[in-house]
Design brief:
Number of domains of chain A: 2
CATH superfamily of the largest domain in chain A: P-loop containing nucleotide triphosphate hydrolases
Number of domains of chain C: 2
Structural class of chain A: alpha/beta
Structural class of chain C: alpha/beta
Mean pLDDT of chain A: 77
Distance between the termini of chain C: 37 Å
Strand content of chain C: 5-15%
Order of helices and strands of chain A: HEHEHHEHEHEHHHHH
Low-confidence stretches of chain A: 1-10, 18-27
CATH class of the largest domain in chain A: Alpha Beta
Chains: A alpha/beta (242), B alpha+beta (371), C alpha/beta (379)
CATH topology of the largest domain in chain A: Rossmann fold
Helix content of chain A: 40-55%
Number of helices of chain A: 11
Shape of chain A: elongated
Oligomer: heterotrimer
Strand order of the largest sheet of chain A: 2-3-4-1-5
Order of helices and strands of chain C: HEHHEEEHEHEHEHHHHHHHHH
Low-confidence stretches of chain C: 1-10, 68-86, 309-317
């Protein structure tokens, strides 16, 4: 546990409880594709610079990691509205860090407003000057964001970067097994490999699918077999998310 | 419900409970006190739904009964009645409480008692008794170290649990904010073996401390996984607990600190206070330069200048220089009873133990500052 | 219309012991609870006014009545004894101590998140803000006051602004054991996907007209059978909407409106001016909104019937006004092409929606709307 790392009292050392709270991570599994990103978040606030960029495809768990980080650091979530309508000292307040999600939509040629790049630069500078940190998420690394503002481009290109690879089969399998175990469900042989061959590679999909299967098994008082899973995938799961 | 009571008795009783009721409440029943008259007593019950206090006072009851009425209004009225007055209270069972005293008449609107929160009832699995002195020691020596950071809610209270030290069973209270830790223990009372470790919220600790100030009676403690209750004389304080896991604090109490320093407590506290006066900053640092027989305290501030002071200490060993937050250091040294305080150190970056030379059951851990 | 929070008639969800038409949803919740694998967060979704919040509080009371060490002094022993005779019911009677404390807001293990009053303006906020949700964290960080479950009801989740939704997400990520979150949502599609994905979804369906009619009857015994039947018909399966319509004089407006539509394609100009005048009067803003809603709803159904999409729909063949309403829809529907009807519908919607912001004369809008209709169906 990193305790009370108030940046203004950086000289105060903290008691090392080595207590990693179960922060939003009850089903966040650390595996090869995300190990790098997790390591950087774990080492907060000991980052080499003011910013950390985490990038990866949709569904790779960036937002989930951001949530883990938020719960741990009590960082402020910064929105495009904040950037455009307010100033960093106002919307970040005294929080030790800030999180800016989907930055690739805020900067570069497709940005909603040309003022956003300038605003992101202000935020970066403000946090840097006050010894605090900024976590950014995006689908691509900063070099691919097409940033127009040279000052911002150079800062973000130099920021610590961690990519999240797509969940591999091993990770998805682990997620599915854990999900079923959490629900104290026994499953037939072959269910996992059947699902694995037919599902989107995302944590979210795994969670929703297991929930739908649980639901159906309970409703129908049936064991969780390949046949049941097939039905769920074909019918209930398709319509499950409205 | 109909009763007559001395204004002074009623005011004292109200004073014990009304502060628990929050001033601004959008839920009407939570602005109210529950009044219960019977057996020659009037008992008042106040709650904020995390914490519940019942206090009773003798009264002349002509018709037993119960109702609820607005706490702060009632308190304000009784406060403004003349000293020595008699107060008559009458609940008509139709949602009104009449209060009369001398020529004054008040009518308060009431809410049904069934609407009132229930925190105080129920059996609690563990029961034991503490003396007032024990309660004061457990609270006073740890309270300052409770974290006030809401985000670390599991540190926002005192961790009370049964433990063992050198083969002896103890009841231990621990609080920490991540920079310092306070641990105080007393011999385990009968009935307290097998209690769950619980975190008693800061507000409960403060209310308890206020309430025990006036009593000399023993305090009966009831405890379960979800609640703690303190009862003495006419007062019952029941509280929810903090639902969290207190960190494994044992691992931050170093065992191999071999640099031992004994110092006269009062002189040390006064010296720290003087030296740290040089800076108005909250997180000011005091540097301790420790050499054989001499401790040199120093502090400096870019705006205000610098200060040093030497005191004699009992220390043999290598010269060591370590910095501490002056406020933290004072908090700890001021809690130490007995003429001598002991520091056990390893180096300038490791936790330092402070203890009472005469009482091994009291222990503080303080992390240094990098200076 | 605020169909979920009608409290004038003692019908507020928090103190309504009765629920109709949601037996299946109720059974699902009860079975989930008894299975010991209760999802910690539920999203109760469906149209406004059908009883989602009523079900949420009903489930909350049921859960709170289980396993608590404290049931109140000298009151009841085992809460389960008070359950309804039917196996799947979550009924807890109004005389039960848990019912009383839930209704008064005095249950220490229930946290209700609703829009709050802004202390600076003294007005009810238009959304649920982050502070309203933060209190949930504090609530879950304390143990249960009555020794059992801790329940949070969010009514309704759609009203959370983004910061509030993010704050709730944190709670959803780390719920404590024996902690339960019940989210009510009229439009769950608008919720953050991350919130939706962390909840078990329970869709509640609109009630049958019979069901709606008998519910309104229970709360408005002053209405006669004919009125009840029309209200039930107009309510689209939502008793909350039916009651709101009854309060707002929707019945009379609906009769006036149908009377006018009857005269198409040769509008009774005198009646039209009277209708427009009534809605254009100072203080008739509510009536205008109610009438607008009814007309939009009616035209949408006309289009559905004309397009044949309503075939087999639950309200086919009903004619509560006894004016050949469906025949009227068919007659008007056939008087213009479907494309033309879509155009008309959009034009009328635009007119009605624009009225407020730019302060058009309401009477003029009503005249325009009906003249547009007349143009559309003129041979």
């Amino acid at each position: 546990m990193v305790l009370h790392k108030n940046v203004r009292e950086a000289a105060q050392l903290t008691l090392d409880f080595d207590h990693r709270p179960a922060l939003g991570g009850d089903d966040f599994l650390v595996a090869a594709p995300n190990a790098d990103a997790v390591r950087w978040l774990d080492s907060w606030p000991d980052w080499p610079g003011p910013a950390l960029v985490i990038y990866g495809a949709a569904g790779s768990g960036k937002t989930h990691l951001a949530q883990v980080f938020l719960a741990r650091s009590m960082a402020k979530v910064v929105t495009a509205g904040d950037l455009l309508d307010s100033q960093p000292p106002v919307y970040v307040g005294e929080e030790p860090a800030a999180v800016l999600e989907d930055v690739d939509l805020l900067v570069g040629p497709s940005a909603a407003s040309p003022d956003l790049e300038e605003a992101v630069l202000h935020l970066y500078n403000h946090l840097g000057e006050t010894g605090r940190h900024l976590m950014l998420t995006a689908k691509q690394p900063p070099a691919r964001w097409g940033i127009g503002l040279a000052d911002l481009a150079s800062r973000l290109n130099m920021a610590t970067q961690a990519g999240i690879g797509p969940p591999d089969d091993g990770l998805i399998t682990a997620v599915l097994v854990k999900q079923f175990a959490d629900r104290q469900l026994k499953i037939d042989d072959g269910v996992i490999s059947f699902m694995l061959a037919r599902m989107e590679r995302s944590f979210d999909a795994a969670r929703r699918m297991v929930a739908a299967i649980d639901d159906q098994a309970l409703k129908r008082h049936r064991n969780i077999t390949v046949a049941l899973v097939r039905q769920v995938l074909q019918t209930d799961f398709q319509s499950e998310d409205e | 419900m109909n009763l007559t009571i001395e204004r002074a008795d009623l005011l004292k009783c109200l004073g014990h409970v009304q502060s628990v009721v929050e001033r601004r409440n959008t839920i009407p029943i939570l602005s109210n006190l529950k009044l219960d008259a019977g057996d020659g007593k009037l008992s008042l019950n106040a709650t904020d739904m995390d914490l519940d206090i019942i206090d009773s006072v003798g009264a002349e009851i002509s018709t037993p009964g119960a109702t609820t009425a607005p706490a702060h209004t009632l308190y304000d009225i009784v406060r403004k009645l003349p000293e020595g007055a008699q107060v008559e209270m009458n609940a008509d069972g139709e949602g009104r409480l009449q209060l009369s005293s001398g020529r004054s008449r008040f009518t308060l609107s009431c809410l049904p008692i069934d609407d009132f929160p229930v925190l105080s009832g129920g059996e609690l699995a563990h029961e034991f008794t503490l003396t007032v002195a024990e309660v004061k020691a457990l609270v006073d020596k740890t309270k300052f170290a409770i974290s006030t950071e809401e985000t670390r809610y599991y540190l926002n209270g005192i961790y009370v649990h049964a433990a063992e030290r050198n083969g002896a069973q103890v009841l231990r209270a621990v609080a920490t904010d991540g920079h310092r830790l306070a641990s105080v223990e007393i011999p385990l009372p009968d009935g307290a073996s097998g209690i769950p470790g619980v975190i008693v919220p800061r507000k409960t600790v403060s209310e308890l401390r206020k309430l025990v100030e006036e009593t000399t009676a023993d305090i009966a403690v009831g405890l379960s996984e979800t609640k703690i209750r303190f009862s003495f004389e006419d007062t019952v304080l029941t509280s929810k607990l903090i639902d969290g896991t207190f960190p494994d604090y044992q691992r931050v109490i170093p065992e191999g600190n071999d640099k031992k320093l004994d110092v006269e407590t009062k002189g040390f506290a006064a010296a720290v206070d003087r030296v740290s006066a040089i800076s108005s900053e909250k997180s000011r640092a005091v540097k301790l330069n420790i050499a054989s027989g001499i401790l040199t305290l120093s502090a400096s501030s870019p705006e205000d200048g610098s200060a040093t002071e030497e005191i004699e200490v009992d220390y043999q060993g290598d010269v060591l220089e370590v910095g501490f937050n002056a406020g933290y250091l004072l908090d700890i040294v001021r809690q130490i009873e007995g003429s001598n305080a002991r520091m056990l150190m390893a180096d300038a970056a490791s936790p330092t133990i402070f203890s009472e030379v005469d009482d091994p059951g009291v222990l503080y851990v303080l992390m240094p500052m990098r200076v | 219309m605020n169909g979920e929070n009608i409290d004038d008639e003692g019908l507020a969800p928090v103190d309504n012991p009765d629920l109709s038409g949601h037996d299946e949803a109720e059974a699902t919740l009860k079975q989930a609870f008894e299975s010991d694998r209760l999802a910690h967060a539920w999203l109760l979704s469906g149209p406004q006014g059908i009883g989602k919040a009523t079900l949420a509080y009903r489930f909350a009371r049921y859960v709170l009545a289980q396993g608590g060490a404290v049931t109140g002094e000298g009151l009841f022993g085992d809460a389960l004894d008070l359950g309804d005779e039917t196996r799947d019911s979550l009924y807890i009677g109004p005389e039960h101590p848990v019912f009383r404390r839930v209704a008064s807001g005095g249950h220490s293990d229930l946290k209700v998140v609703v829009r709050t009053v802004n202390e600076k303006t003294g007005k009810l906020r238009s959304e649920i803000v982050v502070d309203d949700v933060r209190s949930v964290g504090n609530f879950f960080h304390h143990t249960a006051g009555e020794g059992g479950w801790r329940v949070v009801v969010v009514d309704c989740a759609d009203e959370m602004n983004p910061s509030a939704a993010n704050a709730l997400l944190k709670v959803l990520e780390e719920p404590p054991p024996r902690g339960l979150l019940l989210l009510v949502s009229h439009n769950s599609g608008r919720l953050l996907p991350t919130i939706r994905s962390r909840c078990r979804k329970l869709a509640l369906h609109p009630l049958s007209e019979e069901n709606v009619a008998s519910l309104i009857n229970a709360h408005r015994p002053d209405l006669d059978a004919g009125d009840l039947s029309v209200l039930a018909h107009l309510a689209d399966g939502s008793p909350g909407r039916a009651l709101a319509l009854a309060e707002e004089g929707g019945l009379g407006l609906y009769r006036d409106m149908i009377g006018l539509l009857e005269t198409l394609p040769r509008l009774d100009v005198g009646a039209l001016h009277a209708f427009g005048g009534k809605l254009g009067k100072t203080g008739a803003e509510e009536a205008f909104h109610t009438a607008s809603g009814l007309l939009q709803w009616w035209l949408a159904r006309l289009i559905l019937i004309t397009a044949g999409a309503a075939a087999g729909g639950p309200r086919q063949g009903k004619d509560p006004l006894d004016v050949g309403e469906e025949a009227l829809m068919k007659r008007l529907g056939q008087a213009a092409s479907l494309d033309r009807w879509f155009e008309v519908w959009e034009k009328i919607n635009r007119l009605l929606v624009k009225t407020d912001p730019i302060n058009l004369s309401r009477k003029q809008v009503v005249l325009n709307v009906f003249l547009t209709l007349q143009n559309a169906v003129r041979p």
